[in-house]
Amino acid sequence: MTPTPARLTAAALAILLAEGAQAVTMRRVAADAGVTTMATYRHFPNREALLHKTVDEAVAEITSGWATVETDGDFVTRTEQLLNLFLDFALGKRNLYTYLVAERRPDARQFPDDFRTGGSPAFAPVLDAVAQAMRDGALRQDDVLEVTLAITSPVVGLLQQYHGGRIDLPEPEFRALCGRTVERVLNGLR
Fold it and tell me: Which residues mediate DNA binding here (predicted)?
């Protein structure tokens, strides 16, 4: 039988993915996991701790292979692959993405410190790719952290508009728009 904490995080993740973080309550998670609400509190002191553990595990699983994407490939290929993986995540697990990126929460990773130290699993592979591109001469020398932010922020902004219904494109066309936007940013950084 699956241990209770794993059942609780699985139930919390299922609710989060289907309905958003606001739907995740200790009572609801307990019911979905088949335990009492008090059992939930024995494993997690509060909703925030449960969400933190749930989200950390989900993001670790989603991003587990991102750091090794085409590390021997050229910078453009690596960037395109990372962009596609990020869009798969942001579009395929919209409620999780929104919780991570757009909702205010006490355990949110903070720029610059958490991003500089690799604390963001989605940002760190791009940071590594940018650093390598600067070493290889594919990008001109600059602040690696801020250049990575310049590359990633337009996509986050486009996703915010897309999820908010402000960009009315089918998903394939939206993905192409993101690719063209990143390419324009890279052209300015070369």
Answer: 25-44
